[in-house]
Each structure stands twice: as structure tokens, then as C-alpha cells.
Protein 1
Amino acid sequence: MPRMRMNQAITAAIRDEMAEDDTVVVLGEDVAAAGGVFKTSVGLLDEFGPNRVRDTPISEMAILGAAVGAATTGLRPVAEIMFVEFFGVCLDQLVTQAAKLHYLTAGAVTVPMVARASVGAGRGFGATHSQTCETWFTATPGLKIVSVWDAAGAYGLLRSAIRDDNPVVFLEPKCAYGNRGDMVRGEEGILPLGEAAVLRSGDEVTLLSLGQMVPVALAAAQMLEAEGISAEVVDLRTLRPWDRETVLTSVARTRRAVIVEENPASGGWGHEPASVIGAELFGELLAPVHRVTTPDVPVPFSRELELNYLPTPEYVTSQVTSLCNTARSPHPWWEEPS
Amino acid sequence: MAIDFTTADPEALQRRRAIRNDPVQRYRRLVEIRAAEARIREFHSSGQAWGTTHCADGQEAVAVGLAAAAPPTDLFWVAHRVHAMGLALGCTLESVFAENLGRTTGSVGGIGGSFHLTDVGVGLIHSFTIIGTQIAQAVGGAFASQVLGSDRVTVAVFGDGAVNIGVFHEALNLAALWKAPVVFILENNHYAEFTHVDTVTTVTPLARRADSYGIPWRVVDGQDVESVTSATTAALDHARHGGGPTLLEMSTYRYLGHSRSDPAAYRPEGEADAWHERDPIKVEAARLLSEGLATDDDLSAVDELVASDIAEAAEIAYSAPNPPLSAMFTNVWAPDPPSGGSAGSVR
């Protein structure tokens, strides 16, 4: 079983799909000659040539627009939007065009494309290059959304995303690019979209997470074990369509749900599963569904500020412990009376 | 292939072929478009159709000229003022009327409305209602032609209102850089919504902007079908043979307001009259007569044929059923791939 860093696994996924399918192409800023600013396309230009691996100007509207048009007419473009915030200048092509063309053409065309982007805080990149922005996409029927954090997941899910006939937003936490992990390369390593993964079994609480909050939830589960609380950890992997069955099955058994998300407290992606869990399992729950989030502030820069902005394993552990002991949602740290 | 050609309407393809080499059929299509839009406005004014609609009265020669120039295998990404373009490319009167009425037999099953038409069989990918967005998509289609080794050329049709949005510039720059087989058609009808083009830009002709990207450009008489066709044919050939993109500015005029609710009271007096003098239908009629391709009787016969086509199509479209509630749930997601793989298996 090979070990790879997540950025190498992403490169491998694109490479393997390109080798199997001549219609897979790559475009974006510095993706060809430079191999990507996060080294997620190293070697692709050499192997597949400049027709299929194309550097673009800093023109996100043209990058995504060209990807939509190319996807409509027979290619499977993998477009890189370097930082998720850059979708802010080209969201039309994804949300209003790619996601609706199949619908608006009565099925005459499909738009099989992937729009990849780096996300997340923890790297000192400042408020405008450190968000996750999943919720820019979540209320868009026709668009799939995936978030990854490790090599095996990135490889397996990206290959599925490229094969999918729908537009897929593929989010990669920038702090996770260096994560080294075991992975399965080839067909067996492919992971289906829309399926969550239970990464750790437990009986008393389900920690539901996504992206780089998954390792935080896993570390918290370890700490909780030391405190005598048995936590199950579910990696949602795909935010739309999300795997209700796995999540509800887990929470029906543990009877407590904590969502660990890298999102502002107001309006984060966790509201959706929280609402469904609450509605479906209302009478079964031993505690309110609880969300552990970032504060409602932009991402601050100074190191201690930024690292405390993100939920830490210690913080998640204290929140879960409090929930389990009191059956009440604990206040977030920034609201606790001093 | 991401285009499902089984959705194509064979009658549309016939209609498209009809105007390719037959000037009388082109004339008939001009007349048909003018009459069809008048009928569409009646659907709205009588309350039979709801929502809004954007007519292209006065601009028919651009639509018909483009459709006559391009083989049906070339692909069009066009703007929201689409009845003329759709009918010119071959969409049937019934499908355009029915889409305006929201019927199941509409171009996209009543899911789109007046401004959303598609028929991939005649190369109409879609009509786009976010200004300029289609320009970049057409460049993407040309990118696909390059990668797939196809000789297909793509065409982006957009109005003067689109030249001041960023995607126009990004797309032209990228097309030039990639020497993409795409033709940009700037249909300058002189108004973006209620605003005259001269009040929003200092650079004219608008097509000069192509110089910024090293793209050849021309201003074409958009009132004259033959001028549109010959300029477009040359640009398509240039792109098809590796010459890269061209920008053609079709100079024309929108007789009516932006949409059905706009009486266009902002026009200076006499402005429209000058354009009516060179009405595209009049221009083409004069040509047919002077070149001996048709007689006055022939032209009158065309008018009668069109009137009966319109009446019949309107009746058929109006009688068609409205979509069932279940229709809103179709085509939200692409169908599962036919075999193998785990991708796309979850809804």
C-alpha cells in the first residue's frame, strides 16, 4: 500500500483519469508548467502535453466558463480555482450555468466537470485566502460538493468526481496537502460520491465532520475515550448530496450528535444535517444536536488568533464532554462568561 | 459525449437546411420571425403567457444570416433575446411558442421560458440570460474542438451590453491565446436594456476592443442578410482552418423596448425611423426583386404562408398540455453512467 501526501494523491487521481480517458483535461493558473501552486498537477504537462494541460491567465470567469463549455461539448475538464475565495468572481459559471444547464436544456447536455479549490484556515494566509465557503454552493441543486482531508479520500473521491456527469466542486484544505497517508491506487481506490465514512466506532456520541475538521474530530474522539466517552466519527466526505442514511443510522444508535465544522457559527454547512437529525430523531436524542464551529468573525491572521479561531481537539473534547454530562448545548468559548 | 443528440428535432434540422442556400427561404424566415414575435407578444398581452419576453424586431437579418452561414454541426451559445436566433437556426414555431407558454412541447419542455431555447441537432446549445456568460463557454467549446480533433467551430452571440462585463475580456484574451476555433458575434442593437450604447462606453466601434487581444474584427451591416452571411462564413472558415477567433460586430437596431414592459420612451425622436428605412425585410425583398429571384407575387405568397404557419403553430402550441408537477424533478441531475464505475450513483 503506497503512502502519499494528499497533493500527490490528487495529482495521481487526475493522472490516472487522464490516462484512462482522453477527454479529461486540466486548466487553471500555474497548473501546467509549474505543476500547481500546491503541487497538485506535477508532471501532467510532461505526460499529457499542452493540448490537455493548459495554463490560463488570472481569469476565473474564463477558466470556469471554458470548463463549462468544454464539458458541454465532450471533455471532462478539471479546472483549478487556486483559492476558494476566487469563486467569488466567477460563481455564475458554476451555480447559475453548470448546475442548471442539464435542467434548462431538458437533458440535452450534461456538464461533467470538476472545479477544484484550496480551502481553510491554519496557514497564516489571511482573511481572504483562508475561508472554506462551502455554503456558497450548498443551496444549489445540480451541483455536487466534496471536501477531503487525506490522501486516500482525495484520490478516491477525485477520481469519482472526474467520472461524474454532474459538475462537482472539490474542496481541498490547504493545510492537508502535506498530510501523508496510506492509499490504494487504481480502481480499488475509487470512493463513491455521496457516501459518508465511519472512521471510528463509538456508542455515546457521533462526531460528524468534513474536510480538515475530520482529523480534529478523530483526535477529540481519542481524548474523549480517555475521559470515558465513546465517540463515533463520521466523515461526511460529500456535502451534496449528503449521506443521510449513514448519519442517521449512527446518531440513532449513539443518540447524540456533534457537528464539527470549519464554518462561522451562523450559516455553516452543519445547519443542514443538524436540522435533519433533529427532525428525524427528535424523540430519540439524549441531548440537543450541537455544532462546534468557528466564531462569527473573518479569519484573523496573528498566529495565536488564527489557531484559536479553528476548533481544536481540546476544545471539541470539552464541548462534547459538557454536552454528554449536562444534556445541554454548551456555549462556545467566545460566549462563555469570564 | 456530453451532448445528447437524441433530443434533436428532425424538423428543426430540415428548417435549418432550407435557408442554407435558398434566398427566398431566408426571406421567408425573416418574415416568419417578425410575425412570430408579434404573436408571442399577443400571448403575453392576452394573458395566455406569463413572465416576460424579449423581442428582436429589427434584428432578424443577424439571426438568419448567421444561421445561413454556419453548418448545423457548428455550435451556438446565444443571448436571451433568442426567438429570432432560435427560429433562424431551425427551432420550430411550435417549440418556440410552446416554450413561451410553458407547455410540455416547448423547446425545453416548459422548464425554461421565453428566453431558454435549446436544440442541439441544429447546434443551438442554449440561450443564456446572464449577460456575457456564454462567451467564455463558447471558448470552452472551441477548446473541446481542439482536444477532440474536431473541425467544429463554436459561435458566441451576445449584445452590445456584454462588452463591458469582465467575462467578455477574459474570454477574448483566452481565445486569442489558445487560437481557439470560435467566432464572436457582437450584435450591436444599440441598447442595453434602456441604455444607449454611446452612454456607457467611449470606444467605438465596439469591435475595436478585439485589437486589445490581437483578434481580427469587422463591423458588418446587420440589416442585410447577405452581408451577415458572407462575413460570418469567412470568419467560420478562418477559425476552422486554424486561424483562431474573429469578432464581428453586427450593426443593427432593436425596434422595441428591452422587454414586454418597456415602451422604449427613452429613444430620441426619429432614431427608430432611420433604421426602419433599412428594415432587414425590406432590404432583402428589394434584393430578391432586383436580382430577379422573386416577384411581388412570390413575396405576397410568402406573407400568406407565414401567416398560416403562425396561426397553425400558435393553435398547436396553445393546445399542448402544461407539464405535470413531476416535470420539475426531471433533469436536475445527470443520468447515471450506463455501466461500471461508482461515479454519479447517488442522488
Protein 2
Amino acid sequence: MPTLTYFIAMPLAAAFLTPLFAKRMKRAADAIACVSTLSLFALSCGIAVFVINHKTASYDVGNWVPPFGIELVVDAFSAFMLVVANMIGFFVALYSVGYIKTYTDKWKYYTLFMLMMAGVNGLLITSDIFNMFVFLEIASISAYALVAFGTEPRSLEASFKYAVMGAVASSFILLGIAFLYGFASTVNMNDLAQVIASKGQVKLLSFVSILFLMGFGLKAAAVPFHAWLPDAYSSSPATIPAVSSGVLIKTLGVYAIVRIFFNIFGATAAVSSVLIILAVLSMLVGAFLAFGQTNIRRLFGYSSISQVGYILLGFGIGTPLAIAGSLLHLFNHSVAKSSLFLNSGIAENAMHSNDLTRLSGILKKRPVSGYSMLAGAFSICGVPPFGGFWSKLMIILACVHAGRPGLASIAVFASILTLAYYIKALTPAIFGKENTEPMTQHEIKPNAAMNIAVIALTVIVILGGLALLPGPANNLLNNAAAIIVKGTSFANIGGLR
Amino acid sequence: MIIYMLCLVLFSIGLYCVLRKRNIIKIIIGIGIMEYAVNLFFILIGYVEGGRSPIYEHGQTMMKMVDPLAQVIVLTSIVLGLSVTLLLVSIAIKIYEKYGTFDITKINRLKG
């Protein structure tokens, strides 16, 4: 299906066209970014429907037969991730129309943003492990540059930290790919899965697994590797944490880990226990560190780390219910956290501070983003009937079913901690008295595009649990979970080919 | 075998440089060393003793050839490494403009 190349060609073309037109026409950059991300979102929904009916869509680039040529494949898992990534991408692009006006050179922002989307989409549709690395680097390098976009001292420092850690992680991943290529003489994922299955588990694979866990774990911000995340989030434009928390750490980190460990290596008990340890550490450490934060972006950043823990926990448990719960939580967290970050951007523009002691009375000053923030926070804490409640419930139930009540109680405990720090931090910020101190700068009002993006995300946050009712969304979720559960035999049931 | 081990030693030297050095330029050099070590490792994997370039000519018998895929991968990875280095160096220049130092222990406005 040649349509698949569109996912890479469209954002790359948009990134190329933006500098050409944006200098002459004022609104060209906005229009190109919004139209291309909207078309990608529509197309990813179309691909998802196609994949539900036909199991898989594939395209051999240049008609070279795989495993020799490059193959693009979309199965239910990657289709699910494509829908999430492109949906968040579209809403963030829509929000940027109003938000990025406060920065100079907005066409540079859009160029980097579209390059990042090209990397993310490419990573999701490729079935070649080296191509995966290349797209991961494209997305990461654009993200490093976007974090430094404000060129204030703080953002440069955060960007340098992020870039150094990311470059070291990428080197680990490439070293892992080198060992894997030397071992299996192929880079095609489907071929790799078969070769590894026929050669059996050898010691080299454990070493490669450790390299990949370090590399992709850093991209996913799982706990021992999380140090870049709060810094990068607190000192960049508000759209960057929204897209990073909603898309980047999910695709570059979680998707890559799951694809490699479940579908190529086959989920062994050792890998599951390592994932569970990472998950428990992330949940607890993220939640405890969030308590002391006075900066709203750092608070949300630590909350992201904690929620990634839940997602990894479900994959570590590995039963069908747990994996479906993880995928649903991935979706719910992406939407809710992007909405929270975008709203924090509106609130910061209103009060010119992202310090929680100075942010107060958001509900009075900006009612739309106040209510929207409340919905997002409820979803993340797991208050019924918001989306986050159902996915957390699924993960915790799966822990109990799998005979791991200890893990279930840790998950419940982390959830209570989440509720506690959100109440502590956000109650004064949202419901408190309006800050009456005279401000040195003019407040910046959100325009219609920003409000529409935030309201649409809020509606999805509230309706997130409906994905469990019978329908296309539920089919996609179950098919995606089935592909992960099948492990290395995914090739034979119409996963990747 | 020893040559592969030396490659990994080179990688570790780069990692040591990134972890221990305080000057950000030296950190960037460390990242460069790591990237070169991985590239060298890839080339060694694809190398065949006495192999020739894998170009097929008409009427020629197939002989031992080096693996072209490893070389293609290294070319791509060199370009990626170049762009990371470029970005890091430009950020380092900006950091020097704003902070007036290359010492990472003095570049510490972000905490928590």
C-alpha cells in the first residue's frame, strides 16, 4: 500500500515548504503545519480502520523484496500508536498557532516540529531496526533543538543536558543494533524474530537487551534514566512538553521497548521482571519527587514519569488484560498530560510565571483552561468516570489476576500519592484567589485556536473510557494487545507481514 | 577477537569522558569518541579478510566480498552523529555567551 510513504513524506515536505513560504506570507507556516498534521491524523484513522479489517498494511520501498529492501508495515499496534501520535500532533500544531506568537521566528519552530513528527511517524511504520534508529535520531535531534528554542540560559542548559544524555543513549542503541546485526545478519524485524527464535536464547541477547533497555529506557524516562525530563519540560515553550509527554516518550521509548522485547526477542521472565522493577521505581520515585515541586511544569513532568511506570507495569505483567490496560493508559495519559501542559501554557501566559506560588485563581482568570486542567488532573489521578480511572483499574485488576497482589497494592498506593500531590499543588492554583500583584508585563490572552485545541483534548479526556465499549476503538485496542501477546510468532498471524 | 574488544575499550573511554569531564567541549569530544567506536565496530562486523568490494560485473565469478550493508549503515550513522555534534557545539557556544563558562558545575540554574 503506497499510501504508507505519505506518513514520512508529508511531514518532511511540510518541514521543507515552511521556510520557503513563511518569509513571504505571514500565515503560511501556521496553515502548512495545521493542514499537514490534520491530514496525517485523518490518514492514520483511515489506516486504523483498514488494519482492523485486513490485519496489516505493508509497502516495499522501491519494490525491493524484504528482507533485502526496506519495508514499511503497519499492524494494529503501530496503527494505534499512529492515531495517538498524530492526534496529539494535530492539536499541538493548532495550539501553536496562537502560542508561538510570543517567540520570534515561528517558521523555525514549525520546521523543527514537522521534522519531529516525520521522525515519530517513520519510527512507527518502519519494520527495519536500523531505520527505527534513524527515525529515532531525527525525532530526538529536533526535540533537543526545540527545547533550546527560547535560547534563554535555562533552556540552553536543559537542552544541553537532554542532548548529551540522548546522544549517549543513542550510542548504546546503535551498539546494540551492531551486536544484533553481527549475530543475526539481518536488520529486518520480522527476519530478526525468526532468526532469534531458531537460534534460541544466547548470552549475547541478554547483553543486547541491557543496551537497549538503557537506550530506550532513557527515551522513555523510566526512573534511573529520568533526569533530563523535568529540566527539559520546565524551560521550553509549553507545546514541547505537551508533545514530548504525549508522543515522544511513548513512541521513542515505550513503543520501541515493547516492539523489540516482545515481538523480536520474545518476552522472557527476566525481561518482564526488569520491566516491573523499572515500572515500580518510576511510579514511586516519580510520585514522591513530585511532592516537593514548586514549578507547575516540573510537577507535571514528574507525574509523567510516574504514569510511564504504570504503562511499563502492564507490559511487564504481560497478560492480555494488563497489556490492553497499558495501551489504554498510554492513550489516556497522552491526551490528559498534553491537555495539562497546554493549559499550563495558557495560565503562564496570563500570569507570566510558572511558579505554583504565583499561579493562583486560574479558574477565575481563564475559566476554560481552569476547567480543562481540572478534567486532565482527574483523569491522571484516576477519578471515575474519566478515562484514566478505567485504564488504571484494568492494570490493577490484571496484577491481581496474575497473582501479584503486592504489585497491585503498590499501584494503588502510587495512585493515592498522585491524587495527593495533585490536590496539594493544584487546589490553590485553580481555585485560589486571583493574584492581584501588579505585573511587569502585559498578560497574553489565548486566541480561539488555543481554546479549541484545549477544549477538544478535554472532551477526549472525559470520553477516554468509552474505548472499552464495543466499537472500532475497542477492536483496535484488542488487536494491538493481541499482537503484543503473541510475541515472536506475531509474524505468522499477520502482524508484520 | 582482540580487535573487537579494543573497539569496546574505545567506547568505554568515550563514556568515561562524558561522565567524568567538567568542560562541556570535552564532553562533546567524548560523545564523538563513542560514536566513532560504534562506527568502527560496525565496519569490523562487515569486514571479510581479503574480501573485495561487492560490485557485480558481467562474466565475473563471485568471490569473497565485504558486507556492504554495514558500510551503508555506518555512512548514515556518521551523518546522524555529525548533526548531533553540530547541535551540541552550537548550544555550547550559546551557553558560553550566556553563562561565560564551559564548566558544567557552574552551569546549574536548574534544580529539583
